[in-house]
């Protein structure tokens, strides 16, 4: 199953939930709904990324209106899943779960998060304007839905985009960005790379860990027709298409800054921001970083386009999170958390959220003429979410273990410690061992979700 589309189940549920509340919109308010929960404190983990800094800016508005305190801890992404799992396993104090799209299966199957319909059945705490159909269907399905049940609402949503320095491209004789990966490598890269001046055509975040597995390794499978797994859930990494993509990644290395294999998002974004690299494929959420004069020198030279197309077409990355209510929390805190999640992902604050640096999962905000005119990322972002996006990372509970394998051997490939072919075989065999132990080959677990 190569592409993730919004499932019929999720859409049907979204429709039912959107219409389930008998309360009239004019009779419901966030302040009134929150009255029983004044003084409650809810706990949530945030990341040190633009979307979270944006919601933090807006938090005083929620706390003033509701009397509910939001206690947040900023944690590196690499430590977030482990920290949350330990908290859930020990019946800790988290009230709101931050759920990466590849964690939703694990969190749902372990009963750590509460289905949304548990709360939408209570009109006193559910905004009649919630409108789940107002989210991009792809996002609601990918980030918040498991087995046809909605668990969380999309928050901090990403699409892979091509950010580029149009001034550097113009100086090299180009009046538009490359449309294909092949064009980027063969035509653009040689003219945009000057090692004596320390300038390079392209930069790829590749640090060992989830950055290597999700942002580097997987990015070059789908556009070339490859995939991590075949329909039997066996490794597909030794297929011609997968090897074509991984070998292409190796071919880009001479046109990237030295040490790029150790670059995380911050270093890769900074390479474009400081004029070291001319092009970067990165999540839409980093647009605010690249347009901030405090962190970026690129200024008016910044431009945004869809990711280049490969032999299999234009298949940009999809990433993001949902916010879900933690089942371990006491009932009153769960209800307070549900009010916060609705507010944080609502149409009502979507424009303020985008203007503060976040990327909303709501469709309506991107129809706003001011937003469309002000933010270059809107058009390619909406295009990718409307047409469907390849899900690079399988959404099953075994992903974290597989990610570690890819992180190790994918890095070895880039560093030349093993060949692409050898690395693909190592990842494939180790990945199948994990899936075998997890019960995916004996019918204990569903193969595809």
UniProtKB/TrEMBL annotation:
Keywords: Signal, Transport. One of its GO terms (cellular component) is periplasmic space. The keyword Zinc-finger does not apply. It comes from the Bacteria. InterPro entries: Bact_solute-bd_prot1, SBP. This is Carbohydrate ABC transporter substrate-binding protein, CUT1 family. PANTHER family: ABC TRANSPORTER PERIPLASMIC-BINDING PROTEIN YCJN-RELATED, ARABINOSE-BINDING PROTEIN-RELATED. It is found in: Periplasm. Belongs to the bacterial solute-binding protein 1 family. Residues 1-25 form the signal peptide. The keyword Signal applies. It comes from Arboricoccus pini.
